Amino acid sequence: MAPIGERDAVRRLLQRLGFGPRRGELDTATAAGFDATLDALTAPGPDAGAAATPAPAFAAVERVPKDPASAQALQQQRTQLVVWWLDRMAAADRPFPERMTWFWHGHFATSIQKVRFANLMAIQNASQRRLGTGDFRALAQAMAVDPAMLLWLDGGGNRVGKPNENLAREFMELFTLGVGNYTEDDVRAAARALTGWTVNVASSSATFVPKRHDPGPETVLGRSVADTTSLVNGLVGMPVSGRFLATRVWTRFVSDTPPDPGTLGTLLNAYGPRHDVTALVRAAVRTPAFRDAGSVLVREPVLWLTGALRALNVPASKVPAGSLAGGLTGLGQVPFAPPNVGGWPAGTPWLTTASALARLNLARAVVNVGDVSPVTAAPKNARVAATAALLGLPAFTPRTAAALAPLTGNPPQLVATALASPESCVSA
Amino acid sequence: MNALTRRRFLLASGAAAVAATAATVGWKDLADRARSYPLPVGTGVLVLVTLYGGNDGLNTVVPAADPAYQSARPDLAYGQGEVLDIGEGLGLNPGLAGLKQQWDNGTLAIVRGVSYPEPDHSHFRSMDIWQTASPDHPAGTGWIGRWLDANGRDPLSAVSLEPVLPPMLAGATTAGAALPLRGLALPSGPLATAFTALGRPSAGESPLQAYAARSITDLHRTVDTFGKDVDAKAKTTGKQGALAAQLDVVARCVEAGAPARVYSVSLGGFDTHADERGTQQRLLTEVDQAVSGFLTRMAGTERGRGVVVMAYSEFGRRVAANANEGTDHGTAGPVFVAGAPVRGGFVGEQPSLTDLDQGDLKATTDFRDVYATMLSDVLNADPAPVLGPGRTTLPLLAGA
Fold first, then answer.
1. Radius of gyration of the CA atoms of chain A, in A
2. Which residue, A43, A58, A178, B291, could crosslink A244 as a Cys pair with Cβ 3.0–4.6 Å?
3. What is chain B's Cα-based Rg?
4. Of the candidates B3, B202, B323, which has its C-beta nearest A339's C-beta?
5. Do A347 and B328 touch (CB under 8 A)?
C-alpha cells in the first residue's frame, strides 16, 4: 500500500511509542519531524510528569489476611495500584519508558489474581520499568527470579527431586523462544535448572536456597546449564529468541502482518549482541512498513483510555472509580490482571459488540471530568474538526463527520461519541 | 489461564476476521428476521463451557479404585469413600454433587480420554487446537466460526458471554456476537442517534476501522434481539459466580426464543501446578452449581429442553503429582455432555494409568468426533465443512 504522509507517521509514532499526543503535541512534533520526534521520545531524561506521580509505597504483608478489614485493605491496594499506573501513563512527559513497561507487563504477563500482594506486583512493575528499555537479557534474568513471577508460575515450589514445570515452560514458550522451539525434554531439564528459589512474602524478596537446587548440570537445547543464570543466558542468546522478540515487538508496535525476512534481519541487527530493546523498537518504526497505509493496529483498551486521558488532560483518578473499573472490566483489560500468562490478545478480539458499548460509556465518564474547552471554543461549524484535532485523530470519515454533526451544540457529547467512533478504535 | 492467546492463533484469526469485513450483510434484514422468527421450540441449542487452564481430568472423573492412581499422587488423590460413585471404578469429584444428580437422571454423558494425536503441552497451542479443531497446523478460523460461515453467516447465531471474543467464534467471513453481562442499556436522545450512525460503513476506510464500525452495528442488532432478556438480569442477586452469571443470561435468551444456536461461556483458573486439591474442588463446585442449576432450569421450560451443554478443557494433567501438591500439564481428559436430549452414560474407554506416554495418559477419543456429534445431532449441520471429511459421530444424543 501507499506510504502515509509525515504528519500521519508522526501521529503513529506518538500513539505507538507513547500513549497518544496531548493537546497541540501533534503539531509541534510534526514541525520537528519524524526523526527528531523519535529521538526525543526514546532519549532518557528527567520527567516531571512521572516524578509528580510516584508509585504508591505499600508495606509488605506477611500473608493474605483473613479478617475482612485487612482483606479489604489489600483489595484497596490493588485498586490503588491500577489507578496509579493509569495516572502515570497519562502524566508521563517522556512516555516511552512507560509504554515499554506496559508492553513488558503484557509479555511477562503476571496477574494479581493469583499473586494477591499489590506490593509484589509493584516491585515487578518497577523492575519492568527500570530494565524495560535496555538489555533484554537483564530483564529476563530479573523476571526469572521476580517474587511475583515466582508466585504466579509456582517457581517458589520448584525444588530438587520434585520439579514444577510451570515457570520453565512459559519462560521458553512465551517469554524467550516461542512455541515449537524446544522439546518436552527441554522443559523438564529447564525446570530442574530453575530449582532452588523461594519467595519470602514478608520481606518482598526471593531467596536462593542451595539445598533446594538441583545442581545438574542439565542439557537444555543442546547446551549445558546449571542454574537460573546460565539457563536464561542460554535462552536469550539463542538466535530464535531474537527473532521471537523482534516479531513480538513488530506485531505490537508496527503491523499485524509479520516482517519479511529482510526487515527481520534489520531488526535483529539493531537488537544485536547487547539485546538492545530500544534499538530494536527504533529500528522497527524506521522501516518502510511502519509508514505503510495498511499498517493499522487496533488500540487495546488501556491504550485507547490513556490516549483519551492525555488528550483531555485529566488523570484517571478523577474518573469516578466505579465507571473506571466497570469500563476496564467491560472492555476486557484490567492492568495487573491479564487473563493468563499469555497476556492480552491483539487486534479484532477487542472489537466486540459488548466492547462497543463499554467504550462509549467509559468515554462519557472521562469526558465528564476532562477538558473539552478547545472544542467549546470553536465555532459550531468547526467543532467536529476541532474534536478530531483534540483527540489527535486524522480527519473523520464522511460517515463519522455526518454522525457527529448534530452534536455540535453539546461538546461533551460530541467528544464522547467521537471517542467511541471507529476512528478512535484504531491507530491508523 | 483464562482467555487464550493465543499468540499465533489470535494473529491468524485477526487476519481472517479482517477478511470478513469484505462481506456485506444486510443487517437490517437480519434484525427484522430475528425479531419476526424466533427460534422454533425444540430447536437444538449448544452451550459450550470452556474451562481454561487445563482441568485435571483424573481428579474430576476419579479412578479412585485404581491403586496406580493412589500411588501416583498420594497427597492429591481422593479416596474411594470421598468421590461420588458412577460405576466402573470411577467417581465424580466431591464438588460435583449436582452433576451426579444429572448422571443419576440419565442426562449426563461423560466422554473419556478425549484429546488429539501428538498432544501439545502448551496452554495456548492446545487451546488453539481445541478451538480451531485443527491439530495438524495453525488455522485462522474457529470451529464454530466455520459453522457460521457454512450456515447463513449470521453473527447472532453464535453468541459469547465474554468481553473478548473467543477464537472458536471467529470464522473466515463471520464472527459471533458478544453479549455484555452488565446489561445493554444504550443511551438515548441525540447521542444515541449519533452512536448508531457510527456503525455505517464508510468507503475507503481500513479493514480494522470497518470492523470497528461493524461491531457498533452488531451491537445495535444485538440490543434489538437480546436486549430485553439481558436487561432482565438486573433482578439477579449479588453473590453469583462468574460462570453462573453467564449461564443466567444464556437461560434468559433461550427462554425468550433468541435466535442463537450456540452460546460460549467460560471459567478460568484450572492451571493447578500447586495446591491443587482445594483450588480445583472449589472451581469444580462453581462449575457444578452453575451448570446443574442451568440444566435444571432448562429442563423445566419448553425451549430449554433442546439445550445441550458441552464442557471441556485444553488438556488434562500429568498422572503423577509434582512437589507442590499440584500437577503439570498433561494430555487427555473427560468431556461432559449434558441436557435433556442427552443419552447419559460413559462413552469411550478410560485411559490406562499404567500404559502411559512419558507420564501422560494416552487418548482414547478424538475431540473432533465429539464436535462432529454436536454439529450433526444438536445443530443438525453437516460436520464435513467444519471438520473435514471422515469424522465419526458418538452415541451422545438420545434421539440420534
1. 23
2. A178
3. 21
4. B3
5. no
Is the residue at B12 inside a domain?
A: yes
C-alpha cell at A141: 534474568
Cell of B11: 494473529
Q: Is residue B248 part of a domain?
A: yes
pTM of the model: 0.85
* Pairwise CA distance, residues B354 & B333, whole Å: 16
CB-based contact B184 A403, cutoff 8 Å: no
Q: How high does pLDDT run on average in chain A?
A: 96
User: If pLDDT is split at 50, 70 and 90, which confidence band does B19 have?
Assistant: very low
B192–A contact, CB cutoff 8 A: no
Q: How many residues are given for chain A?
A: 428
Residue A348: its chain B contacts at CB < 8 A? 13-14, 17-18, 165, 170, 175, 208, 211
| Domain-embedded: residue B382 | yes
**Which residue has 495453525 as its cell numbers?**
B138
Give me the domain span that covers residue B270.
Answer: 6-387
Number of domains in chain B: 1
Instruction: Delimit the domains of chain A by residue range.
Output: 6-43+239-295, 298-427
Confidence of residue B179 (pLDDT cuts 50, 70, 90): confident
Q: Residue A400 is nearest to which of B6, B198, B208, comparing CB atoms? A: B198
| Whether A332 and B164 lie within 8 Å, measured CB to CB | yes
In a domain, B394, yes or no: no
- Residue whose C-alpha cell is 479412585: B64
Asked if B322 and A162 come within 8 Å (Cβ–Cβ), the reply is: yes
CATH of residue B185's domain is: 3.40.720
The verdict on a CB contact (< 8 Å) between B329 and A413 is no
Instruction: Report the SS3 class of residue B44.
Output: coil
